[in-house]
Design brief:
The chain is an alpha+beta fold and about 280 residues long. It has nine helices and four strands, in the order H-E-E-E-E-H-H-H-H-H-H-H-H. Strands 1-2-3-4 form a four-stranded antiparallel β-sheet. A hairpin with a 6-residue loop joins strand 1 and strand 2. Helix 3 packs across helix 4.
C-alpha cells in the first residue's frame, strides 16, 4: 500500500486521475507503473524510438515527485544505463521541461513524451555526459555505435509492471479512509471487550462442534456434571477417563435394551400373579 505521506490529498487525486488516463490510453512507446510503497515515485518503460541508436531497447526511468509538487518540477532519472548526452552517468535527466521551462500545469503525459523525444533529438549543448555530447557533435557514427552498444547490453526488455498497479493506486484515498474507519471500529471493539470478564481456563466448554466426535461430546457433558458437583481436578480426570473409554457398539446397546424390556415384562407377569393369589 502506498503511504503518500509526501504529497497532499488534492495532488494525489490529480495524479490518480492522470495515471488512470495513462493506463487506459498510454502514449506511444511508453508504459507507466506506480511504486506500491510510495506514490510519489512514478516509473515508466520507454521503448527506443525507431531509426535511433536506441531502437529495440527498453529503458526504465522514474520521476521523483517532491512534497511541493506541482509547484516544483519532478526529478527524472534513467534506471537503465544509457549512452546519451543529456543523461548523466548516475541516470539524472537534463531537459528544460524539468528545469527552467517547468510549469505546474504540465502533466505526467507531457513530461514522459518530452523524455522520449530526447532519445530522438538530443541536445549536446547542455550535455551532462560530456563524452557523448562531444562525440555527437564531432563524429555521429561513433556516437551512434556507442549508443547501440549500450542499448544492446543494458536496455533489454524489462519485467512487466504488476497488473492492476495503477488502478489500485488510483483508489488509494478511498482505501486509506476505509482502513481508518476499520481501525476506529477495531479500537472501540477492543475497548468494549476489555471490560468483559474472561472465561476461566478451568471452566468447561459448552460449545460442541456440529458433527464432532462423540467422544468429545461425552467428555464435555461428563466434565460439566462432575465439575458442578465437586469442582475438583479428580472429577475432571475421571471424566476424561470416561471420555476415552471405548464406545459400545450398536448391537451391544440393542441387546441391553432388549434385556431391560424382557425384565419389565416378567415383572408385570409376577405382579399379575400376586394379585390373582390375593383374590383366592
Amino acid at each position: 500500500m502506498a503511504t503518500n505521506e509526501n504529497l497532499p490529498p488534492n495532488v494525489i487525486k490529480q495524479l490518480a486521475k492522470e495515471l488512470k488516463n495513462l493506463d487506459e490510453s498510454p502514449p506511444e512507446g511508453i508504459k507507466v507503473g506506480v511504486n506500491d510503497d510510495d506514490f510519489s515515485n512514478i516509473y515508466a518503460d520507454i521503448e527506443g524510438p525507431a531509426g535511433t541508436p536506441y531502437e529495440n531497447g527498453v529503458f526504465r526511468m522514474k520521476l521523483l515527485l517532491s512534497h511541493d509538487f506541482p509547484h516544483s518540477p519532478p526529478k527524472g532519472y534513467f534506471l537503465t544505463k544509457i549512452f546519451h548526452p543529456n543523461i548523466a552517468s548516475n541516470g539524472e535527466i537534463c531537459v528544460n521541461t524539468l528545469k527552467r521551462d517547468w510549469n505546474p500545469s504540465l502533466g505526467l503525459r507531457h513530461i514522459l513524451l518530452v523524455v522520449r523525444c530526447l532519445l530522438i533529438e538530443p541536445f549536446p549543448e547542455s550535455a551532462l555526459n560530456e563524452q557523448a555530447g562531444k562525440m555527437l557533435l564531432e563524429n555521429y557514427e561513433e556516437y551512434a555505435r556507442h549508443a547501440r552498444l549500450y542499448t544492446g547490453i543494458h536496455a533489454k526488455p524489462k519485467p512487466k509492471f504488476k497488473s492492476g498497479a495503477i488502478s489500485e493506486s488510483t483508489t488509494v484515498l478511498n482505501v486509506d479512509q476505509t482502513n481508518a474507519s476499520i481501525l476506529n471500529v477495531d479500537q472501540k471493539t477492543t475497548a468494549t471487550g476489555a471490560a468483559l470478564p474472561l472465561p476461566s481456563p478451568l471452566a468447561p466448554s459448552t460449545t460442541v462442534s456440529k458433527g464432532g466426535n462423540s467422544h468429545d461430546q461425552i467428555a464435555t457433558v461428563v466434565t460439566m456434571t462432575e465439575t458442578g458437583v465437586g469442582g475438583s481436578t479428580t472429577a475432571a480426570a475421571a471424566a476424561t477417563a470416561t471420555a476415552l473409554a471405548p464406545m459400545p457398539t450398536m448391537t451391544t446397546m440393542q441387546k441391553k435394551e432388549g434385556g431391560v424390556a424382557k425384565l419389565q415384562a416378567d415383572k408385570k407377569k409376577m405382579d399379575a400373579r400376586k394379585k390373582s393369589l390375593k383374590r383366592l
